[in-house]
Amino acid sequence: MAAGSCVPQAPRLSDAIAAVRHFNRFYTGKIGVLRHGLLDSQFSLTEVRVLYEIAHRQHALAAEIANELALDPGYLSRLLRGFASRKLVDKVPHVSDRRQNLLALTGKGAQVFAALDSRQNQEVACMLASLRPGDLERLLKALRSIEGILSSQPRDPYRQYLLRAHRPGDMGWVVARHGQIYFQEYGYDERFEALVADIVANFIRHFDCKREHCWMAEREGENVGCVFLVKSSERVAKLRLLLVEPSARGLGIGRQLIADCMLFARQAGYKKVTLWTQSELHAARHLYKEAGFELVKRARHQSWGRRDLVAEVWDRKL
After folding, report:
1. Which of 21, 103, 138, 176 lies 20 to 30 Å from 302 when distance is taken between CA atoms?
2. Among the three residues 90, 117, 144, which one is the final residue of a domain in this structure?
3. Which parts of the chain fold into alpha helices (H)?
4. d(CA 147, CA 159)
5. What is the pLDDT of residues 301-313, one digit of tens each?
6. How does the average pLDDT of the chain come out, rounded?
7. What b/e readout covers 99-120, taking b as 16+ CB neighbours within 10 angstroms?
8. How far apart are CA 242 and CA 257, in angstroms?
9. Do residues 116 and 39 touch, judged by C-beta distance below 8 A?
10. Cβ–Cβ under 8 Å, residues 257 and 226
11. Angle formed by the axes of helices 73-85 and 45-56, to 10°?
12. Could you tell me the residue range of the domain that residue 301 belongs to?
């Protein structure tokens, strides 16, 4: 090669190492992982990550979590014993292999994890709040590039979603997808879509950020779910418009949307959360019951082109 050539040279390994370590120091300081307890809690970063794995895996096995997180099996066993002693994690028999036990969060564990997860979402939201839309898009593309370059295995499909607050354009998606999905799955006509449009329009017109919130679930850059918490009275909030796209069901999105709703409601000072649903929405009803809601009222009605509907009211005290 001729002297003075301007052909770019590949970075030296030592320079690359220094750059990666510099970024690690910057980002760990930025998100506070060096504090004694992550998110000002009693849990370490490793403990929170293990709870995350248990919460988001359909079949959580200790050996798989140890392998995924590169943890010593003995160390993981000690963590799990500590969780069990605090009644955060329990073992349940594997359906197809009785020789193995699956790990599952207890009711208390689910509440503790939901609080930690929501707090982490809030801290990241605060960090991103000052970014301009263009910078935010650049950041997200860079994160996806880093993950793709450094990952030797395909990403776990059960963790490819995030929850965020609503932004312009989301309300149109909420109305359209409710109209399309409920027509395809339950035969509700366009009058149901009009009802959803009225709900979201009222939410936007009278939005109270201190006592109301909308969560959007996003997966690979596309909206895949939503839920709203709105003020019904000073003491009562209403959970509305829970939806998860068919392609994203089974990933724990609906459960996490409800958990974030309940945490927000408690922090906002509500004493009860209520919701209105239909008896045939079996998957949603299961999630409501799992989250501690109780059925308090049923009434037959004819709506949206259907003559055989049964409306239900579910409540949960906080």
Report:
1. 176
2. 117
3. 13-31, 45-56, 62-69, 73-85, 107-128, 133-150, 170-186, 190-205, 253-267, 282-290
4. 13
5. 999 999 999 999 9
6. 86
7. eeebbebeeebbbbbbbbbbeb
8. 8
9. yes
10. yes
11. 80
12. 161-317
Q: Percentage helix, strand, coil, to 5, in the chain?
A: 50, 20, 30
CATH number at 295 reads: 3.40.630.30
Cα dihedral: 98, 69, 223, 120 (round 10): 110
**How far, rounded to the nearest angstrom, does the alpha carbon of residue 45 sit from its chain's CA centroid?**
18
State the helix-helix crossing angle for 45-56 and 107-128, rounded to 10 degrees.
Answer: 110
pLDDT at 33: 59
Q: CB-based contacts of 244: which residues, under 8 Å, 6+ apart?
A: 217, 224, 225, 253, 254, 257
Contact between residue 51 and residue 43 where contact means Cβ atoms under 8 Å apart: yes
What pLDDT score was predicted for residue 31?
Answer: 67
Residue 213: its H or E element: strand 213-219
Is 213 exposed, middle or buried (CB count within 10 Å of its CB: 0-12, 13-18, 19+)? Answer: buried
Burial 239-278 (b: 16+ CB within 10 A, else e): bbbbbbbeebeebbbbbbbbbbbbbbbeebebeebbbebb
Residues 283, 250: Cα–Cα separation, whole Å:
10
* pLDDT tens-digit map of 55-89: 887 678 888 888 888 889 899 999 999 999 999 99
Residue 106 φ/ψ, nearest 5 degrees: -75, 175
Residue whose tokens read 């009275």: 233
